[in-house]
Amino acid sequence: MGVSLLSSSPAFLVFFSFSTFCLLADPVLGITRHYKFDVKLHNVTRLCHTKSIVSVNGQFPGPRIVARDGDQLLIKVVNHVPNNISIHWHGIRQLRSGWADGPAYVTQCPIQTGQSYIYNFTIVGQRGTLFWHAHISWLRATLYGPIVILPKLGVPYPFAKPYKEVPIIFGEWFNADPEAVISQALQTGGGPNVSDAYTINGLPGPLYNCSAKDTFKLKVKPGKTYLLRLINAALNDELFFSIANHTLTVVDVDAIYVKPFETETLLITPGQTTNVVLKTKPKYPNATFLMTARPYVTGQGTFDNSTVAGILEYESLPSNLDSSVSLKKLPLFKPILPALNDTSFATNFASKLRSLGSAQYPANVPQKVDKHFFFTVGLGTSPCQHNQTCQGPNGTRFAASVNNVSFAMPTTALLQAHFFGQSKGVYTPDFPSSPIIPFNYTGTPPNNTMVSNGTKVVVLPFNTSVELVMQDTSILGAESHPLHLHGFNFFVVGQGFGNFDPNKDPAKFNLIDPVERNTVGVPSGGWVAIRFLADNPGVWFMHCHLEVHTSWGLKMAWIVLDGELPNQKLQPPPADLPKC
Length: 580
Fold this sequence. Notes:
With 580 residues, the protein is mainly beta. The chain has helices spanning 178-188, 343-352, 414-419, 547-552; strands at residues 32-46, 49-56, 65-68, 72-79, 87-90, 116-122, 128-134, 144-150, 164-173, 197-200, 217-220, 225-232, 238-243, 248-253, 256-263, 265-268, 273-279, 288-296, 308-314, 332-333, 371-382, 397-402, 405-407, 452-454, 457-460, 464-472, 481-485, 490-497, 516-517, 519-522, 526-534, 538-544, 555-560. This is Laccase.
């Protein structure tokens, strides 16, 4: 099953009571793996604060899914809580299986209380680390877990096989109910209250009150290599991460191999994953080492300015050291992380990421472009309702938009409306391909900051080659936005600061070995250019992975039409697809 490859920390022990069966055993086709996710409430205590959280199988973080490239997954999700539930398998391509993608009211109606739904999809040509999370309101604050995709049987990694593999998943802990936090913010029009802690594998660590016992410990042996599978499942914060006195080698991002490079610190946005190789010191170092993460912040709003820490602990004590000596007496080294607003680090780190681009793992960058799109992404305002005082800028409500369209979520799933030809009253196919009113995007903001609202989509013929430039705006302050595209990986062919120049900037695009991923940070006060081939029929959500911005409307959808051949058509919906 591949599970033995992975270490088990207490937060991540996967009890196979939710059953993993192998039905098929063809090494080429892969096998079928069954999981059962019981979504229930259970009590968890962090920061000396006990509360009831929504979780899967009573685990926080949730259970790990392990599969190989080519495997089919059947994951039965049963909803035992009062909330509507949907689960997104973040980064899985979902080729022709859009019904299993998971964003509520986009590819499915949510699973209602007492109901269940089987997510059925096959992993095709992917290997690395992804993750699953709730995709409705702010429930992903506690509903998340790792997806470990191993290569096909007998296929090695393009780097030395590690001694051990360890998932490290960053989260955000709220003492309050996150659903109440966003509900209050949407009611008042102001910014939401920030989290109380960041977590590593669900644990806040010793730098927080009352949390020394809730610390993730990575126990290692000298002279070994460890593959750390890093996942940022935080709601609203990009994170810097480092391990004191150790160098990390980046080998994979978003389940795509990259040209390996060494770094002491990395940046990971919500929605991104990064596999790094940690080589431990050749001899027992007589010390312990903190691993820490804290936010990279570019916006004007308040944020959780705290640091999560775990401990890297060397296991084998040398014979001359009495094993009764407390680890507390060993010196503890702390890493030095970049400044909170260190955009130059963010830029330099992003520029080091390149596709492996080997014969076995080529970078198939679209060289010709059928359709060009230019999207502004950023914040704005909406008017306050009649007779209400709002807490947004100048008495308005905070909003966010793409090309000044703040996306209004439908009450029927878009994919159903598209598949059955019932789009009338659900969505319109007139999402603007560029801003309707151009302005100096990163200069002095315009006087009118109001956004428009609508459920608008872009419709693409099958196999359209797309180039999309996403431009940050300075309306309400420039800010980095991690944009996630469902249903596709894309190539990050260029990025820069200021306003994108369509005459000069494309000449600098990397069309040879750009990094391929599913979530990219649009630079604060800058732009990023991506290319992808629309070879996956269905309805595909694209949104900022800062949950607050998604709640405010920084989202849109692409519809990719069926192709001519049978294997280019979306499969019909499953019989148990939830109803609205």
